[in-house]
Amino acid sequence: MRKIYAGFVLGLLGLVMQAQPLSTGSKKAIQLYDLATRSIDGYDYPTAVRLLHEATSIDQRFTEAWLLMADAYDFMGKYDSVVYASEKALQVGGDRYPIIFFFCAQAYYKIGRYDKAMEMANTFLDRKKYTSSQEKQVKRILRNCDFARWAMANPLPYKISRMDDSINSAYDEYWPSLTADESAMVFTRLVPKAETNLAFWGNWQEDIYISEKLSNGWALARGISPQVNTLQNEGAESITADGQKMYYTACNREDGKGKCDIYVSERTPAGWGPGVNLGDPVNTGSSEKQPSLSADGRTLYFVSNRPGGKGKFDIWISHLQDDGHWSEPVNAGDSINTPDDEQSPFIHPDNRTLYFSSDGWPGLGGYDIFVSRKKEGKDSSWSTPVNLGYPVNTFADEIGFVVNARGNKGYFASDRDQSRRKDIFEIDLPAVVRPLAVSYVKGKIFDAETHQPLEALLELVDLETRQVVHRSFSRKSNGEFLVCIPIAHEFAFNVSKDKYLFHSEHFAITDTMAVDKPFLKDFAMEPIRVGKKTVLNNVFFETNSYELNQKSAVELNRLVQFLKSNPQLKIEIMGHTDNSGNEKFNLSLSENRAKSVADYLIQQGIDAKRITYKGYGEKFPVADNNTAEGRALNRRTEFKIIE
Fold it and tell me: What values do phi and psi take at 630, rounded to 5?
């Protein structure tokens, strides 16, 4: 990820050296230099470094050899050695190649020596031997150094800790992803293909690992599945909120459309199944990678270098359509994307807060983590990204940032400690960078009579806007489901399946503390049969009135659709009250409330002959009237199949 030079040095020097010979006259040193170049082309960086040390020992003024050594060290992740080699190049070749001051400014910036980076950048500008592109890049380094010094002088109150050895190992770990209930974490690990020649870059591959949450921490991570992991690279994954699917990146596949494509694997009773290429229009002849799926499973965020972007790798967005196909991806726009690289998008389960890494927005070095929030309105534009600040972001790469559904903890990968490889870190988030907290409802859906699991449609509808904010299905094999529920809204949660009565629940989470108490509930679905009934939990009336509250429209429209889909049915609307107040008044109130519901259905086109209504007052309680909770349950509207 974090390549300071990565061939860029040689590319620029190649242009400069077209008019100049190499800075050494030693044929032996040049021979070693050429061999080192071939070693870098073959990803054998340690050999390249050894050859270049031999070349510079023959001629210590061999500027190009020092610069190529910096390039090799950069690929190896030895950034202090990059600075060492760059300084050597500057000492012997600064007058010959003023561009080296620019390279040194980059190198110092990338290891967090901001004052020295600014000194080198200003010296380069003072030489006045640069292109407009180089001037732009150097001035950007100066701006970033100013920001970095300010950020370090104004740290945010993060509590950061490296995850233990159940997750991190002697190898690189990155791209963490969590289920909404935090029962499982998946991540990418860079593992050797063979235990020999570990310094050879081509000997390494990426695999996906999984760990389950235990009462005392995380279980020792293991490879997720031989159906997913191969001898090629798999990684940059996103597990769905319910833990049933995983979207991930795989490269150079026979069924691939480009260099890297996005695949999806589904968890079955036998384990994780083989990945399936998402195909058009998500995957193209370019590279598509690092997917993040919204909690409702309807929106896919990913990065790509496809044509039409704002920079190198941009964040793109695609929506799942009703026919099961993904829409043509849309660029996230220049409020997110820059002319440089954006990486590792993560959309929080609140479906509004986007975290991502970038080396294009002002930062402390390498890739920094940013947060942007979706603006209100139909255009779905994004706020200007905010750097998460120090000490989350450092001069190193910080990538793969994810946040738990509750919004209080984040996880990310960083190579900030050069005594180790890349590790995954856990942080407590201060309020300023938290998303909207999210809870969830989790359980199973089954037939009330046979107890067989059911694949049922799940919908979460905002009662205020009447917008469906979540639509998914329970698992066919066991009826399990998990649906995220944002706070500060009222929702109707509907469960439906052909040939069954639909079931509804009402969720209104107003207290952020409530996210620590998710809803665990199973639903027994009643087959459509005479005498069966269901409670309309999202039908509301004004206090001591039979006037329908406008929020009732969501539930009543659902009942209208149910009756239109089952035109042979006749129903009775049943009104009930608690035992507060006068019994005669309660009976009349329940009758009028039942009539209001019946009238609404008729107004929506349901034949009046199919509907009867009756009020039962306080006669049939379903809970204890001595508690507020019980009385609320007793104040209800039901419908019953009568024919």
Answer: -65, -45
Using the structure block, give the residue that is written with the tokens 């694949």: 455
- Ranges of H-type helices in 534-573: 553-565
Which strand ranges, in their side-by-side order, compose the sheet holding 490-496? 468-473, 457-462, 490-496, 503-508
Tens digits of residue pLDDT in 225-280: 999 999 899 999 999 999 999 999 999 999 999 999 999 999 988 899 999 999 99
More confidently predicted of 145 and 468:
145
pTM of the model: 0.88
Q: Which long-range contacts (CB under 8 A, 24 or more apart) does 247-250 make?
A: 247/278, 247/291, 247/292, 247/293, 247/300, 248/208, 248/275, 248/291, 249/288, 249/289, 249/290, 249/291, 250/275
What is the architecture, at CATH level 2, of domain 161-433? 6 Propeller (2.120)
Spatial separation of the C-alpha atoms in residues 104 and 79, rounded to whole Å: 12
Q: Where do the domains of the chain lie?
A: 8-153, 161-433, 438-641
Residue listed under structure tokens 């100013």 = 146
Q: What length is written for the chain?
A: 643
For the domain bounded by 438-641, which CATH number is listed? 3.30.1330.60
Q: Render the burial of 312-322: b for 16+ CB within 10 Å, e for the rest.
A: bbbbbbbebee
